[in-house]
Amino acid sequence: MIVDGIPGLLVGALLVLTFPCLLVAAALGDIIRFRISNRLNLVLALLYLPAAIWMGSDVAMILWHLSAGATVLVAGIVLFSLGVIGGGDVKLLAACGCWTGFSALPMFLITVALAGGILAIALLLLRLVLSKRIPESSSLARLLGRSRDVPYGVAIAIGGFVILPRMALVQAFLAG
């Protein structure tokens, strides 16, 4: 860490905790509006840099993590162009890729895929059972209505929480 002692620990905790907090905000936004804010995605991606610097990552490690985010972004753009995934989801996955780096990226993506599949099945079943019972003016109407949309930000957030203890920055914080 750049600064030792209690102040350094507090700043490090604040920087590292931004990752899960912003994932919760993204998931909630996706549930409520089926949108993930571009600002949120940008802030999440940009906050990786001060967190990495504060935790003492070297330039090579930072560039390696940023290249993981860029790789996810490129793959996500392809999936978006095929209509497989939403644009906000792509940007959120790419921002998470910066934080996870290549070493934790496979487990993160597998967890996101599994959580997304479970979420889609659960929504399908809930929509079949409850869609006619929910008033159209209800806040649940859009989520459980006849929409085919799945708030995939929830699955991404779950993947982020599962991978959190394996992330290099979190491990550096816990070791510091």
What does this structure look like?
- With 176 residues, the protein is mainly alpha-helical.
- The chain has one domain (5-175).
- It has helices at residues 5-33, 38-54, 59-81, 87-130, 141-144, 153-163, 168-175.
- Helix 1 packs antiparallel against helix 6 (153-163).
- The radius of gyration is 18 Å and the shape is elongated.
Task: Reconstruct the topology from this structure.
Blueprint lengths: L4 H29 L4 H17 L4 H23 L5 H44 L10 H4 L8 H11 L4 H8 L1
What would the keywords be for this entry?
176 residues; mainly alpha; elongated
Give the helix level as a range of percent.
Answer: over 70%
Low-confidence stretches: none
**Largest pleated sheet:** none
Total number of distinct structural domains: 1
Strand segment tally: 0
Rg calculated over all Cα atoms: 18 Å
Mean model confidence by pLDDT:
89
Summarize the structure.
With 176 residues, this protein is mainly alpha-helical.
